[in-house]
C-alpha cells in the first residue's frame, strides 16, 4: 500500500510504485493529486477481481516510473458503497482512469505487460515527431498492437495536430521529418506528403496522398480506425459504438476454420471498395449469445450475411440469405448490390431474456436475489395449495436459466466484469 502522511491535518499521497488503497476519506484527494490514476473498483469475494489484483501489482511500479506517471489505486466497492454509487459502479471489477479528474471507463487488456502498453497511450504526446528511421521503428514498436498507428511522412505537425487531439484515445499519431528510401519501400508509399495508417495486429496498411484539408484527413482517419474486416466480440462492439456506419455482418460457424478465413479475406477486399460500410464477422462458436440475437440456431444455414445498424434493427437481402461455398466473392458482391438497391427485409434483433434484461440493469447479484425471492414465493404458494407464481412464459424461464448458466461458465477476458 502507498504510504499516506499527514501535514496540517491534510493527507499527502505519494506514488512509490505500489497500488494505493482508497476509501471515502482519501478518494477525492487522490484524484486531485495525480493527473493520471487508474482505479480498480473491486469486491473481495469476486473471483475476477482476485485474478486481476496481481496484474495491477505488477504494472504499478512500471507505470509510476513513466515521465508522466500513472498511479494505480483500488477501492473496495463492496464496503464503500456510497463511493461506488457515486461513480456508477454496478459490476466488479470496474476499472476507470481519471485524467485530470475526469473519469473514463477502462476497457483495455488486463494482463500486466499489455495493460502498461495500453495506458502509455494516455500520457504520450498528441503527435510524436520522428527524425530518423530508427525513431520510426521505435515508435511503432512502442505503440504496440491495440491502437491503429498514423505516420505522416513529409507532413507538418500542425496538419494533423487537431485530429490527433480529437482521436487521442483511439490511435497513435506521429510525423516523420527525416527518413530514407528504405522506409518508403518498407511502408509502401512512393511520394510525399503521405499519411500511412497501420494496424499491426491485423497486418494491414493504407496510404493517403491527399487532399490534406482537415475534413478529408479526418475521413481517412475515421475509416482506418478499424481493420478492413473486424472480429465482433464484446471489446470491438464497444469500440464501434461511436461509428455511425452500417455494419455488414457475416456470421460463420467458427472463425478459426480455414473456410471462414477465406471468407474473411474476401470481406477485406469488399471493404476496400465500400468504405462507407464497416465489415465485421463473428463465429457462433466464439460468441453464441450475440449470433442468437440475429435468429441464428442449429437449423440456420451458415455463413449468413446481414446489414446491422448497430442497434435494434438489421436488414436481410432477398436472394442472399445464405452464402454457399462456390464463388463466394460474387455472392458478397451481389449481397452489397442488393443492399444498395433496397432489395431488403427489415428485421429486429431478438430481445434479451427477462433475466438478461434485469441483469443489464441491476447486475448479476441482484438477479440472483430476485430469483431467490421468486422461488421462495412459489414455494410458499405451493404449500398453501395456490397456483404457483409464474414469471414470463416457459420459454423465457428456460432461456433465463440458460443465461445464468452461461454467465457463470463464461471465461474471463479483457473487459469482462461480474457483479
Molecular structure report:
This protein has about 425 residues and is of the alpha/beta class. Helices cover about 40% and strands about 20% of the residues. It folds into four domains: about 5-120, 3-Layer(aba) Sandwich (Glutaredoxin); about 130-225, Glutaredoxin (3-Layer(aba) Sandwich); about 230-350, 3-Layer(aba) Sandwich (Glutaredoxin), CATH 3.40.30; about 355-410, no CATH class. The two termini are about 25 Å apart.
In short:
The chain has about 425 residues and is an alpha/beta fold. Helix content is about 40%, strand content about 20%.
Q: What general outline do the C-alpha atoms trace?
A: flat
- Sketch the major β-sheet: 6 strands, mixed
Spatial arrangement of strands, main beta sheet = 13-15-14-16-17-18
Low-confidence stretches: 1-10, 352-364, 386-415
Residue-averaged pLDDT: 83
| Structure summary, number of beta strands | 18
Defining traits:
419 residues; alpha/beta; Glutaredoxin; 4 domains; 15 helices; 18 strands; disordered N terminus
